[in-house]
Amino acid sequence: MNTEIIQEILDQYGDRATNSIFERSFYTRDLAPVPELLVGPLFRTLPDIVIRPESTEEVAGIMKTAFKHNVPVTPRAGGSTVYFNSVPIHKGILMDLNVLKGVAAVDETAMTVTVKPATTWIELDRYLSTKGLAPKSFPSSTPAATIGGWFCMMGYGIGSLKYGSLLSQVRSIEVVTPEGEVLHLTKETQPSLDWYAASEGTLGVVTQLEVEVRRRNDMKHFLLQFASPAELRTAMQAIIKAAEVPFNMHFTDQECLKGMNALGIAPGGLTEGYLLAVDYEGSEQELELARTIIQSIAEKTQSVTLLQNETAELEWEEKFKAMRLKRGGPSLLGAEIWLPIKNLPEYLADVQKMSRSYNLDLFSYGHVVTPEYATVMTTFNADELYTIRYIINLSLVKKLHDIGYHYGGCPYGIGLWNAPMVGRIHESSELNKLKKIKSDLDPKGIMNPGKVYRAPFILNPFNYTLAMDVLAGIRKVLGKGW
Predict the structure, then answer these.
(1) H helical segments located in 263-368
(2) Distance between CA atoms of 113 and 103, rounded to whole angstroms?
(3) For domain 218-320, is the CATH number 3.20.20.70?
(4) Confidence of residue 328 (pLDDT cuts 50, 70, 90)
(5) What is the mean pLDDT of residues 435-463?
(6) pLDDT tens, 355-407?
(7) Which of 361, 402, 428, 441 is the most exposed place for a label (fewest CB within 10 A)?
(8) Where do the DSSP E strands lie in 29-181?
(9) Strands 274-282 and 218-226, bridge-based pairing
């Protein structure tokens, strides 16, 4: 990036812009502890400059400068993923959006809230609670995840089973294009706001969202313990088809439960079985119907235990601590997979075959987010301080995705690291359409380049598959110590 452009930006934005190597270094990673040996030779993750805009107008000004000089721009707020979605790989400008937060307006007649993109979901929930309102859905990473960030991902999480994806709840957005134009979009405009959902910051910078909200209701929580994953699936499907739709369903496999028990954090001190947490929200009448549904399903299932209310409520209170197994760490590696519920038992069975084959503990848990699909996270302990061992273990993430793909699943989120598997996420016709949208909206390719649509050459599907399979073979030979 031209030093004159950098100086011009520094002069314009003062202490809200920096080219300090020390400060820029904090933006070279997200939650994924990827070794420098793997990143440094392949990508230029250190931005030339970091800017914190205070308004939509400043975002537009930055984009106009970047477009004029053909400089890559990477937008970032919470940075709470592990795919390098918000990490630059071609240097350029890192646009830190964390000043753009807060609620702009609440319309209780329309039941919407207008909010800035870097507002976290926990901040929004606390604000809405003072008005007797609540978000319709939110991610399991609510304390750190931002409204804009989750919209630009797939936007499925807690509450999605009942209220749908975040996209279905967004009425309008304000977005700055790569050329610096400010657009106000709905589902009926051209371009449509739909184009920006799950775009992962590659089409523009979302600066404001109008999102539907709900009345804050009472809740009732249930926790069921099953002897097998087949019984778990049968109960899930019965609950989904029942007259009252749950707000949330969260499941934990037996190995995950054992792992939590070893750390002293298993719900109710349980040591075996497959758990299903079912959470309802609504009126007193709706909650009573929910209780009847759960009791009826429990009575019809041969080996199920309906656990005490206190245990179920505690599990709900722990809903934002999905990564608590990291305590057995120091780190976790894993794969998050969009998986058909009907194939969950077969997926879990093959995961345990892999566990035995590679002599490591694999833990699976997840959320049911549509009547047909769940997001399943399968993890294992790792240590990034042992670089070579860590890189070899990364191959097992691909093996987990292979199992998921075999059962109709695909990666949840793309960014950089899942780009080699983009063909599993989108059919070729759909991918071509997305590439056309990218080309039309970002003709110079400056908006978060190198992500989502195709893998960089070094990570193209052939190279990636070959390298991961070789490393996985090495890992199998090396055994448990690795």
Answers:
(1) 284-300, 309-317, 344-358
(2) 7
(3) no
(4) confident
(5) 95
(6) 999 999 999 999 999 999 999 999 999 998 899 999 999 999 999 999 999 99
(7) 428
(8) 49-51, 73-76, 93-96, 103-107, 112-115, 133-135, 170-176
(9) antiparallel
